[in-house]
Amino acid sequence: MRGLLPLLAVGHRSGRSAGAGAEVHRWSLAVATFVTVISAWLFVVSAATSLASDERIAAREPVFVENSGQSAAVARWMIHADSVDNKQFLVLYISPLRNDAMPPPGLPRWPKPGESFFSPELLKSANAQEFTQRYGEFGGVIEVSGLATATERLVYHRPPTDTPFDNRDGLVAISGFGVDPSSFGRDYFPSTVDGFGKWTVSDIYILILAVIALPAALLLFLAVRSNSERRDRRLAMLDALGAPASSRAWVLVGEALVPVFLGAIAGFLVALATTYFNIRVPITGYLVRSADVDSARRWIPALAIGSVALAIFLVVATQLRRAARGETRPRHLNPRFRRWLQSAFPVAVALSIWGAATARDGGARYSPGLIVFLFALLGTLISLPAVLGAGSALLGRAVARLGRVASSPGLIIGGRWLNQRPMMVARLCAAFVVGLGLLVQVQVQQAWIVQQARGLANGVAPQALTVGDSLLILRTQSSPAEGRHFGALVGPDKFLRVAEIGGVPTLVGTCVALKEFGELRTCPGATAQNVDSVFDRFNLRGNLLRGGTLISAPDFKVTTDLDADGSTSGYFVINDEMKIGATKIANAAYATLSKPYVSTPGQEWITGGLAGAAVFNWVLALGALGLIILALAGALATSGMFLTNARSLGVVGTYDTRLSLYLGIATWNLGIPLLFAGAVGSGVAAFLGVLTLHIRRVGSVSMEVLGAGFGTVALLAALLTVLCGIGAARSAQTWRPVAD
């Protein structure tokens, strides 16, 4: 131990006295270790929240009783659905059969007849007050113990009568609540959650691995290799003095231990904070509850220690391996391969344009144009950094020429450095530009799904969208008495009943109501007539009926016999906002009909499409975090390279120590080229997004995503210019001739 501490001290002191490049190295190690801890913690958080959610779902799952075991039943239960703001949610119908029956988790008591309990997320909707009246009396709020997630949208509703349960085909009697969560996905699929448009925990693992863990690994690798030339010389000197490999390793550990430890402590504290405070994930709106994560608190020390061990191992392993192979300079991309990439860029762009122009409408699968476009898109993004490097070299040459004309040392030095080392900018922007391009593609796909869901793609359901909410569709299996009660509330001339009479789908309504759907040849009597013999011409509402809906077939008969016998499948209600309005119609339906589902034409399609588009929010949220990590990786690596080169300015420092000179060098060597690369990268990402829109025929490129990407590059350019300029000035002021 006495021999170990001096070696650690030597490494620590040598690292602190090695100039601005070593300072960047220490910061890089601290930031990389911090990101490593947080990246690993994201996996643990995902597992913990998924486990807690599964346990709450399992606790509220109904245990059905077969018809032969009705004596064990304590309540009746069935599932329903509704939507608000074009977002679907579940409505769970419940009714106790025994006074001592336990209510479902999250409810303090059983609802009274005609009473409902709502999740907190539903009560945040814009029209929450009107919405809660839809189900009758407001009973209270569902506690978190009864919700899969804190942001779940759920309603527990007890109908005024047990008619909905009596009309239900299937099991409704239950002996209680609660199943084994370990059976999920194998022997049992939960019935109290809507799985459409939802990520599974395995999906989240893969997403975190792809967009967070891999950039974090790149950041860690660049951090351990930053300022490597100084350490190479130090190790070579120790080797010449006869120091064994173990001693050299402990010197490396001493240099890296403090920043790695500080980064791990910062990651430890941030991870620990998430177990005490709720965190809302940006873009998705998902709320990570601290109570769901606190059970995983015991893993935080292990993650911090493991991250420290990994960082130290990489520092030692990579440095000693390079020293053993005699490598003292960073590797460079083969110039021939670089030129090949530069030549491939215009070819890839041309192929992407051709592919987008020849792809089938909507990007149908197996379209040759689409396949060519996808490969060309990847080729464009892969070859773009090499083009940025070539452009930086040309920019550097122009800046140096301008510096000679203007007699500006900052322009001359900055331009010549950029001309000689153009790939420094390319390395900084490479991963970030590729990530931004892919993120824009994700955003475009999401916009396409949203727009298509609203009926703007390929002319789907134009009548439904034109009708809007002037017509409401009620899906229900109600009795004739319930139908009469409902008709009295909305008006007998404002609805059509859809029934099956004699095995034939039939519309039942008054002549006044029928005229709302088109011009009549004649008003049908009590005898059902074919639709073509009744209507001379359909309007928009009528065309919707002829196209088929959730409750009707394209071919049907028509009658005005309001008392005609037949099983009811639903109602068409004409919405006159001046007299009643959609909200009051929905309230009347829930007050009088058995388990109604109220929607506007095409709403199910829109709701499903928006739910599918919301899946991409997780990609955008985590992808944005991954881009930040990539930007950090590039910034730290580039600043280290710049400050390493800045040591050559020592001679200049003997003549001029003004800070403005070194800020000018950093501006023209880093700031301006980074802005140039960011602008070109954002432009290429937008261009590829527009080509994708041409294939999809609808959608838009988000200026927010592009603006955030370019803004990140601009912020990095400003910070690197200032920090590297100050660092270069310090290096020049402290320069001493060595082996000159």
Q: How would you describe what is shown here?
A:
The chain is α+β, with helices and mostly antiparallel strands and 740 residues long. It contains 24 helices and 18 strands. The longest helix has 41 residues, at 20-60. Helices cover 58% and strands 12% of the residues. Helix 11 crosses helix 13 (423-453). The protein is elongated. It has four domains: 4-52 and 200-324, no CATH class; 62-177, no CATH class; 393-456 and 611-733, no CATH class; 463-601, no CATH class. The strands form four sheets. The protein has a seven-stranded mixed beta sheet with strand order 1-7-2-3-6-4-5. The chain crosses the membrane at residues 204-224, 256-279, 299-320, 340-359, 371-395, 424-444, 615-637, 670-693, 705-729. This is ABC3 transporter permease C-terminal domain-containing protein. It is a multi-pass membrane protein. InterPro entries: ABC3_permease_C. It comes from Micromonospora craniellae.
In short:
The protein has 740 residues and is an alpha+beta fold.
For the terminal residues, how far apart are their CA atoms?
A: 39 Å
Q: What's the total count of β strands? A: 18
How many domain modules?
4
Taken from the alpha-carbon principal axes, the silhouette is: elongated
* Global structural class: alpha+beta
Helix run count: 24
Mean pLDDT, to the nearest integer, reads 80
Spatial arrangement of strands, main beta sheet:
1-7-2-3-6-4-5
Percentage beta strand: 5-15%
Gyration radius from CA atoms, angstroms: 34 Å
Low-confidence segments = 323-330, 456-466
Biggest beta-sheet profile: 7 strands, mixed
Q: Roughly how much helix do the residues carry, as a percent range?
A: 55-70%
Domain ABC3 transporter permease C-terminal: 207-317
InterPro entries: ABC3_permease_C
Subcellular location: Cell membrane
Membrane topology: Multi-pass membrane protein
